[in-house]
What does this fold into?
Amino acid sequence: MFLVAITGGIASGKSTVSNVFKANGITVIDADVIARQIVEPGKPAWRRIKEVFPEVIGKNRELDRDALGKLIFNDIEKRRVLNEITHPEIHRRIFLDIFKNLVSGKNYVVLDLPLLFETGVLLDFIHKVITVTCDQEKQISRLIDRTSLCFEEAEKRVKSQMPLDKKCEKSNFVVDNSGSAENTIAQTKQILNILNKSKQHWKIRVYMILTLIAFFALGWYKIH
It folds into this structure.
């Protein structure tokens, strides 16, 4: 089994691309979904956030995401602290999900990782990277449309991330989401077809089998 990563920026359109893979039967492990799960009331990450940032916990014990967003996007140090709380747990969950799919015999799975290049934690395990890009004006406009942010706040959040052109330079595939959804879907399906034809999963399986054979042969040699 090999790993494919989808990355991009806030409001660049990663979900549209991920949904194409899901619709075609490919497993997608979404870091954002995991990030929401680990901060549910009572979870270890939630308890730690409550200790460090009590002002972002609402009366219903739920995490106030708007308050947290405003807090960390205006303070680099607080953003670093939050990442130290959440990232290790997110990465543990991702590795566990990868292992579950590995033993189930999947040819490949897709990881939706907004901060793939920023953290660098999973880069060594990724076979192919897809970056979803669009022009910055569209990013800001889309972010405003789906949130209550003003232009200045939306622009600050977009600019707080690694520039999309830098991510594109480091990627194997680029999906330009500046146009229509239909165009984005068509680009994604082309990449999907390439990945479905890949024989990389066989290479990995052969490597794993040879490694196991070598391991057991070495053990037999030591015994005898």
User: Anything to note?
Assistant: The chain has a mean pLDDT of 89. The CA atoms of residues 8 and 132 lie 5 Å apart. DSSP finds eleven helices and five strands in the chain. The beta strands are 2-8, 28-30, 108-112, 128-133, 173-176.
